[in-house]
Every structure is written in structure tokens, then in C-alpha cells.
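seq as requested:
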Amino acid sequence: MNAAALPFTVALVEDDPPLRDATMQALTLEGAEVVAFPDARAALGWLTEDFPGVVVSDVRMPGMDGIAFFAALRGIDPDLPVILTTGHGDVAMAVEAMKNGASDFLTKPYSSADLIRALRAAATRRALALENRALREQVGRGAASAIPGSSPAAQRLRSVIEGVARSEIDVVLTGPPGTGKSHAAQAIHDLSPRRSRPFVVVDAGILAHEDAELLLFGRDPAAGAAGAGLSRTGLAERANGGTLFLDEIEAADPVLTARLASLVEKRQVLPIGAARARRLNIRIIIARSASDSAPDSPSPRDPLWHRLGAVQIAFPPLSQRREDVPEIFRLFVARHARELDLAAPAIGEVQWRHVQTHDWPGNLHELSTYARAFVLGLSEIGTPAAPISGQRPLQQIVADFERTVLEDALRQCRGDIVALQAMLQTPRKTIYDKLAKYDLKPSLFR
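C-alpha cells:
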């Protein structure tokens, strides 16, 4: 559909009834939605900063004239397009208003064609301005969700994420486990030009799987008898056009790490049994935990990120932004109460003392876990357990208990999957399935 066929919305301010009616009729025949007002004050009481259309106003009106009306509209929304209609004696005023931001002016008598042409141009600019405004608001909400808190460190992180999200550059997220790197990766994708394309996560559960190469790179239909009927698209190829997030890459064995390094460097994938590599259009985000070595020194088990030429974003631990902890704890309590369909309990003096004095070595993940336990009445420090809501199904109650058992076992085993498997006497695949179900990452407990 071309611009000439697009509908538009008009707020028409004209004190001459015959001219107002004739203009309304002409605009309506062109598919416009028109709201008419006899004077400027009536229009001011109706217009808001999110008005999606264009204002057309006469200059010479009783009471508030068009120039004063235009100045008032600038106070409501500086981006609101205003077209002024003037007599020959008012041209100088209209030109001055144009210098101050008016969209256009037409001298009376003007043709319907000239008005419609000016309206369509202004309506196009208005739609673009509102779209950009909505995108900026979305960016702000997304970054705030990924990086909660009001400290200077949190504000800097949000600002960097908002800036990086709009670009196509690859990103490396560094920092201790549990500092919000995976949430930031999702936010970068959601706020990027690729947001309508896939966001594919490759984490430890996939990298440590016995069929990791098949899951990642897929199998070509020409793989031979052994692969007959089992062709599949790998996760890397599913991310084509979107974002591939490599999280916890230290879980990959050396052979798989080498193949991932080739993917990162060449942007190509070679499915099992394929004769030729396939080119991919992907943005890559890598999350790596801060090590004892310098942040810009790749470790032997992590040779991927330094090949990207990417922007690096460092995530500080909660111990370096303690002023954010009470605010984030309130946020987590409200979030878990909503998810569990429970009333958020009052936060007492004992809980506040623990929140404000504990070191939170597990960072955001540990704080969120404590908030969840507090809402469920399962925390060691806090009020007695809350009664079970009669509206919660048994399946949900069992799931909450299972998650708590897994988290406690992970803490005791310090994230060691072998030790966890032995402690719970559960097959390795079942362990990984349960961890994926509850979004529990062993690296956060090490």
C-alpha cells in the first residue's frame, strides 16, 4: 500500500462553520478520520501527547488564536505536527511558526488537494515519530527488566545494552555467575532489528549432551543409511537471520569447542553428512564467567569469544552494587508471588537484615532463589511457612518442592553434575531434563 492510500487522522480547528463542514467532508471522502472543534480551547481539552494524527488550525480565531494554540501544543508534544491555515495578512506569523516547528501552512483560499497533500506528508512523519518513541520506551523497559536496580552501575549497564541492541555487532558478556548475563542476552535480541527472528540458546545442557553435535549442527538428508529418515536442522542453522547465544561454553568437549570456534569465525555450519558448508546470517552473543585471568585474556577452554571482534560488557557482582539489593529483592518477591499465585508476605526486620548484610555470592540468582523461598515460606530465615492455597493444584505444589530439592542439592554439590547424579540416584539425562525444566544452571552454584 502506498502513502497516498494510507488513512490518516485529523484534528480540525476552524471557527467558520461552513468552511469547517466543507473541509470535514473533503477529508472524509479521502478516507481521513476527522474530529472537528470550533475553537482552540475545545481542542486543547481533547488532544493528548499520543494523538496519532495531524492538527489543522486556523490562525485567526476568537479567544486563543492559532499561534498561541500552536505554542500550547508544543508544550503537550513537541513532535505533534500542526498545519496552520492563514489569510494573506497572517503569512509572516505563519512563517515564524514554521521556524519554531510548525509542519506547514496554507493560505486561504486553499484547495482540498493541497491540504490533503500536506496532511499525508505530516501523517507519515507522525507515524514514524510515534514508532520511534514506542521503540525507545520498549528499549527502556527491556533493559530495566534485564538489569534491575537504580545504582550508577545498573544505569550504565542499561545504557550500554540499549546502545548495543540497536547495532548488529556481536557481544561478549562477562561476569560472575548469576549476574544477569542470560537475561541481558535476551534483552539485546528483543531490542535489536533481529527481534522478529529466532533467538536460539545453546547452554550446558545441550553442550554436554551425548548427541551435542547433532543437536547443534544437524544432519543432512544425504548422510547415508545410518541417517536415513533422521535428517534434522541443527540449532545453529535455526538461528539463521536471528541471534545465537552461546552460554556456558566451557561445558563443551575440545572437539565440539573447535567446531564452535569455526562457526564463530566463519559463520558457516556443516551438518553431519553434508558435502558443503552452509552460510549463516547470525548475530552471536557469548556469555563467559569472569576468571582469575584478565578479562581480555581467553582461557584455553574458551577460545571462541576473542575471535568475534565484539563489544564486551562486564557485569559486576551484587557486592559491588549493594544499594540495589533491597530494590531487587522487592522486585523478586513481587514477581514470584505473582507467578505462584500467592499473596506476597510482609518483609520483616529479620528478612531485611539478612538481605542487606548477606554477601550474595550467587548474585541475582541466589537473591531470586531466596525471594522465592521467602514467598513459599521455605526460607531458613523468615516467617513460618505460609498455608497452602486451596487454589493451587497438587502438580504445582510438587513442582515447587522438586525445584527446591534440586537447588539445595546443587548447592551441596557446588554444581558438580556427577556428584548431583550420585546424590539423587537419578540418571544423567533425567537430571539435565529437570534442570532445563526449572531453568537451573549448574555453573551458578559452583
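Confidence is low (pLDDT under 50) at residues 225-229, 292-301, 381-390.
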